[in-house]
Design a protein that fits this description.
By secondary structure, the protein is of the alpha/beta class. The protein folds into two domains: about 270 residues, Aldehyde Dehydrogenase, Chain A, domain 1, CATH 3.40.605.10; about 190 residues, Aldehyde Dehydrogenase, Chain A, domain 2 (3-Layer(aba) Sandwich). It is about 40% helix and about 20% strand. The chain contains 14 helices and 20 strands. The strands form five sheets. It has a six-stranded mixed sheet, sandwiched between helices. Helix 9 packs across helix 10. The radius of gyration is 23 Å and the shape is globular.
């Protein structure tokens, strides 16, 4: 007879304020979206009062951190990267269990976060300023970067390690102190970064972490007196609210929000490559990338072949628990997100007709314990249909027919959003035409619309974004200000 195994206790993750792990009597849990019987972690639920304490600690730590030489700040970021690397397999698995993306996707994202810490660690020794000749004799002029102060960082669940990393690393290297508020469905990776920074020797108060309700913590961050800037990534509704509230205090803000990203496929494209790129961009990470393609705008001459090949390829995608080898598409992150996706599929059925493939929740072979939706392709979608206009944030692709390149450009740009956009073509002239006319902040050509690199500016235009770009050298423009100096000698 086998002896009953003791269940390991679910780990509890505290908030981090002024260099201390602070537990709260109120808690919340995260569950594995591939198997909702599994509680992944329990978190202390932070409050507005915790934000106040974190803001005071961050303000107190600011002078010391801001006056630490850049290379010294960089050394802590390098060490953080090393610590994350040592825990690579553990953190990647935690990401898959908490957010649902496949293990290879989680590893790719974690590697990117590590690269980001190393990139900005190096910025500590490079931090540029401006030095130009004065127009006056015996006058020396220059401008140096200085930090903004205490910065609030509010992050979404879909890139639970990369987005916190691409906000935290530049904020810290520029000499700011920070308060991080992660999304409640997947806070663990951001917590791991904070743990790594703690182990790497970040002085107390420089890094603070408060998890909890978006409404409460978000409002407290926007209203906390010491906070001078907010960087937010998430939905348009919350972004617009932050914009309004933060304007009252004239906070510096950076908002990265939703998208309705197009991929144009022209008749001269390599069909096989175009199909691979669109399927990758539409369905990988369960369509939950902000840069995912949700509209394929296909030139008439290649339309039928493209639809047929895309449906054929989509049907072969393996959906399941992202921890299993060979699985390509994981679950939606939670029940709310799954229901939103299913709601849009029903709207699509009514407006655009039966999908060419997919279109339902998957419940067979144990998938009923998770939030799985079949990768779904709608064809003959009209540009005015709801599924061609509103962000779905799930594995749903709308294929739209375009008469020619001009018509495709018009349809692609006819959206209030402007995050990413892609074209598949072998015509060099049309590539350049597209580059100068596409209304989006991130363009790809003969590549998926999703999949960006950390050493370049990142962000959208139009309603997708507000404020300076993130990542690459551009990131420092948000997290620092110039101090200009004139010296007569
Ligand atoms: P969300 O807006 O619901 O939440 C984002 C963060 O804001 C979370 O931490 C949440 O707790 C917090 N929040 C919620 N209410 C708040 C409030 N009133 N004040 C302050 N903070 C509050 O978004 P989500 O569901 O986590 O993420 C999905 C959305 O994010 C999609 O629209 C997607 O397009 C967008 N996104 C954009 C980018 C980009 O770079 N443009 C990247 C990733 C995700």
């Amino acid at each position: 007879m086998s002896t009953p195994q003791a269940q390991p206790a679910t780990p509890h993750f505290a908030n981090y304020i002024n260099g201390e792990w602070v537990t709260s009597s109120k808690t919340f849990e995260s569950r594995n979206p591939a198997n909702t019987n599994e509680v992944v972690a329990v978190y202390s639920k932070g409050s507005a009062a915790d934000v106040e304490k974190a803001a005071a600690a961050a303000a107190a730590a600011l002078p010391g951190w801001a006056s630490t030489p850049g290379p010294g700040r960089g050394a802590i970021l390098f060490k953080t990267a090393d610590i994350l690397e040592k825990k690579f397999d553990q953190i990647a698995a935690e990401m898959t269990r908490e957010e649902g993306k496949t293990l290879p996707e989680a590893k790719g994202e974690l590697q990117r976060a590590i690269n980001i810490f190393r990139y900005f660690g190096g910025e500590g020794s490079r931090m540029d300023g401006v030095m130009v000749p004065s127009e006056r004799a015996r006058v020396h002029v220059f401008a140096v970067r200085k930090p903004i102060g205490v910065v609030g960082l509010i992050t979404p669940w879909n890139f639970p390690v990369a987005i916190p990393a691409w906000k935290m690393a530049p904020a810290l290297i520029a000499g700011n102190t920070i308060i991080v508020k992660p999304a409640s469905v997947a806070p663990l990776c951001a917590w791991r970064i904070v743990e790594a920074l703690h182990e790497a020797g970040a002085p107390k108060g420089v890094v603070n972490f408060v998890a909890g309700s978006g409404g409460e913590i978000g409002a407290a961050l926007v209203n906390a007196k010491p906070v001078k800037a907010i960087s937010f990534t998430g939905s348009n509704d919350v972004g617009h609210w932050i914009h309004q509230e933060a304007s009252k205090r004239r906070l510096r803000i950076q908002l990265e929000m939703g998208g309705k990203n197009p991929t144009i496929v022209l008749g001269d494209a390599d069909l096989k490559m175009a199909v691979e790129n669109v399927v990758n961009a539409a369905f990988f990470s369960t369509g939950q990338k902000c840069t995912a393609t949700s509209r394929a705008i296909v030139e008439d001459s290649i339309y039928d072949k493209f639809v047929e090949a895309t449906v054929e390829r989509t049907k072969k995608l393996k959906v399941g628990d992202g921890m299993q080898p060979g699985v390509e598409i994981g679950p939606c992150v939670d029940e709310g997100q799954m229901n939103t996706v299913l709601k849009y599929i029903e709207i699509g059925r009514k407006e655009s007709g039966e999908p060419k493939c997919g279109g339902r929740r998957l419940t067979e072979n144990g998938l009923d314990k998770g939030y799985f939706v079949e990768p779904t392709v709608f064809a003959d979608v009209k540009p005015e249909h709801t599924i061609a206009r509103e962000e779905i944030f799930g594995p749903v692709l709308a294929i739209i027919r375009a008469k020619d390149f001009e018509d495709a450009m018009k349809i692609a740009n006819d959206t209030p959003y402007g995050l990413s956009s892609s074209i598949q073509t072998s015509n060099l002239s049309k590539m350049f035409d597209y580059v100068y006319r596409a209304e989006a902040g991130l363009l790809t050509i003969n590549l998926p619309s999703a999949g960006v690199e950390y050493q370049l500016p990142f962000g959208g235009t139009k309603d997708s974004s507000f404020g300076p770009k993130e990542q690459g050298p551009a990131a420092l423009d948000f997290y620092s200000d110039y101090k200009t100096v004139y010296i007569k000698y």
